[in-house]
Amino acid sequence: MICWTQGNTSRPARPPGSLRLSEAIWWLYKANRTFKIDYEGDRFLKDGKPFRYISGSIHYSRIPRFYWKDRLFKMKMAGLNTIQTYVPWNFHEPFPGQYQFSGEQDLEYFLQLAHELDLLVILRPGPYICAEWDMGGLPVWLLEKESIFLRSSDPDYLKEVDKWLEVLLPKVKPYLYQYGGPIITVQVENEYGSYFACDYNYLRFLLKLFRQHLGEEVVLFTTDGASDDYLKCGTLQGLYATVDFGTGHNITEAFMIQRSVEPKGPLINSEFYTGWLDHWGESHQTVSTKKIVDALTDMLSRGANVNLYMFIGGTNFGFWNGANMPYLPQPTTYDYDAPLSEAGDLTEKYYAVREAIGKFEKLPEGPIPPSTPKFAYGKVAMKQVNTVQDSLDVLCPAGPFNSTYPLTFVQMKQYFGFVLYRTILPKNCSEPVLLSSPFGGIHDRAYVSVNGVPQGVLERNMALSINITGKAGDTLDVLVENLGRINYGKNINDFKGLISNLTLGSDVLKDWLMFPLDLQNEVQSDLEKKVTSNNNPSNSTLPSFYVGHFSIPSGIPDFPQDTFIQFPDWTKGQVWINGFNLGRYWPGRGPQVTLYVPRHILVTSAPNNITVLELERSPCKSQERCFVEMVDKPILDGPLFPLKKNP
After folding, report:
1. CB of 511 closer than 8 Å to CB of 401
2. What pLDDT does 2 receive?
3. What does the pLDDT read at residue 8?
4. Contact, 560 vs 604, CB < 8 A?
5. 76 three-class SS
């Protein structure tokens, strides 16, 4: 088996430190590696022989690099011969022209691992991917030009797409199958037929760009829902059309819809849903193993190519989750009820799917790697170190923006997290006065206080007004949280912050100071020492930071181990362990109760630091209840406490 790495785009280089093949041997090898569509035989041909892929989706951006090989090997041992992955543009270009392809973002290393395990790859480089990922993978800085028309032939958008693909596609070209790599097919855009623009010039632009950078031999394809309406705008001559559907679809009808566009060629379900996505405030979604196995068996018996979406879902660490409309953000877990759990555990569904595949293909020999061990480290005492308001000099060292009317996050180049908006009450409110966002301008959740006294929470599409009290000249603070950008549909240009004015009674509030909070850098540089209050803060209802420490004994084999963290009697917030942003917790909304903690972020050489930003209400009025807990089992289907909509 030959594993190529990045080289020039005309032919790949051998791995660093090894000898190059002679030109004659290389061209002979290349001639024997082909992957094509056999239209007459309704199939793929791999090296001239009939081939059918059985694939599973894994998103490297949702799996710690530490566990990439473990997860890929478990997929191989389930009988898969192929894996499918997205490339999130915003994951690799967080700021214009600043490309990140190392560490957790080392796409080439991920492709090499797949190749070493003899797994083929279906690559889905977008530029839009959906994936329940923030803004569908598009970088938020595109919105700095407010008039930009995303996923269209708007010249401003195409210019940035061109720049990005000019960087990405040459990186992946050496990993194409015909060059000795694992990539057999490449998707262009994603479910474009579901987007309202229906811009064929945009698809033509992408087709030309992909061919320019990847060559004429690679199989390019599109994916759309199994509906005539979706295929109408999502397909283009020169791109092989595939469909996606789950157990709720009639399989014959779904493939007939594909045949209406591709009368010849392989049958392909590019996303066969093994589960479904969750939203905060809605029940945890599951799909029965029997339905999955029955439908998979049916498709494989027809000779169809199938990709199981997801085979492992993983985690929306940090702020990477997306949202759907009407505005519903996705939780930190992306478990998806997949055959491999969020933490890479083998499930009943895994073994059932493996057995079903074994009826059609020879399963790999050898033991299946076990689920990774989990350990319950127990309760960790927490202490409040300071409120957000009293930490602004540390969290916003450059000082605030100043504007008559509120600025959006993008206008302040604050792409994720939080901004504190501050103004002065223009009049006395001795009796409760309505603070409201009449045009739905809260994107997405705002924690309101007057002179350090909590007043309530405003929430997008939910709570557009609250009553507040105070005196003229009092400080009004509105801490706004970005809960994740919309990843699907026409509203993906999702601006965050106060995107329209707030009114107090009939008065429009003006003269704002706006503090973008640099949480990540400050948490990583020992936030506790910088913000600890000399006044021993005791207000457990203002947005505040809490810190705790726990030790893991050294010298014990296989320690540290994976764990899960839960928040008894806490409400909502963000949590970091040793500076790593695990994501949001929200037991006050549900259904997710625990957050996955991978072992590679834990240490035995020193106490582990837990930093919590609790936004609403902690249990720390009582020291006995002021703790978080490390447990060995996940809870993803906890009780729901949805907020009732406020008209």
Report:
1. no
2. 35
3. 35
4. yes
5. helix
CA distance 594 to 584: 10
d(CA 343, CA 597): 9
- Mean per-residue pLDDT of the chain: 93
| DSSP, res 131 | T
Q: Distance (Å, rounded) from C-alpha 547 to C-alpha 527?
A: 9
Measured CA to CA in angstroms, residue 519 lies from 90, 232, 418, 539, 638 at distances of 19, 45, 8, 21, 28
Q: What pLDDT sits at residue 31?
A: 59
Length of the chain: 647
Residue 5: predicted pLDDT: 34
Tokens of 190: 């994603």
Q: How far apart are the first and last CA of the chain?
A: 63
Q: State the pLDDT at residue 156.
A: 98
Q: Which residues of the chain have pLDDT under 70?
A: 1-31, 533-538, 644-647
Q: 109-147 b/e with 16+ CB inside 10 Å = b? A: bbbbbbbebebbbbbbbbbbbbbbbbbbbbbbbbbeeee
How confident is the model at residue 623, as a pLDDT?
Answer: 87
Tokens 């919590």 correspond to: 612
Per DSSP, what are the bridge partners of residue 121?
Answer: 83, 183
Asked if residues 82 and 185 have their Cβ atoms less than 8 Å apart, the reply is no
Tell how many helices (H) and how many strands (E) occur in the chain.
Answer: 13, 33
At residue 355, φ and ψ (nearest 5 deg) are -65, -40
Q: Which amino acid is at 446?
A: A
Of 111, 235, 236, nearest to 173 (Cα)?
111
CA distance 429 to 411: 31
Which residues are known catalytic residues? 191, 271
Which residues lie below 8 Å from residue 105, measured CB to CB, with a gap of 6+?
61, 91, 92
Per 3-state DSSP, the chain is made up of helix, strand and coil in percentages (nearest 5) of 25, 30, 45
Task: Give the phi and the psi of residue 168 in degrees, each rounded to 5.
Answer: -70, -50
Distance of CA 121 to CAs 113, 410, 505, Å? 11, 35, 58
| Strand-by-strand arrangement of the 563-566 sheet | 580-585, 573-577, 608-614, 544-550, 378-387, 627-631, 563-566, 595-597
- Asked whether 245 and 269 are in contact (CB, 8 A), the reply is yes
Q: What is the 3-state secondary structure (H, E, C) of 526-593?
A: CHHHHHCCCCCCCCCCCCEEEEEEECCCCCCCCCCCEEEEECCCCCCEEEEECCEEEEEECCCCCCCC
Residues 160 and 97 sit within 8 Å (Cβ to Cβ): no
pLDDT per residue as tens digits for the range 239-248: 999 999 999 9
434 three-class SS: strand
- Please give the Cα distance from 508 to 118 (Å, whole number): 63
Strands 503-504 and 305-309: unpaired
How confident is the model at residue 522, as a pLDDT? Answer: 84
pLDDT at site 396: 96
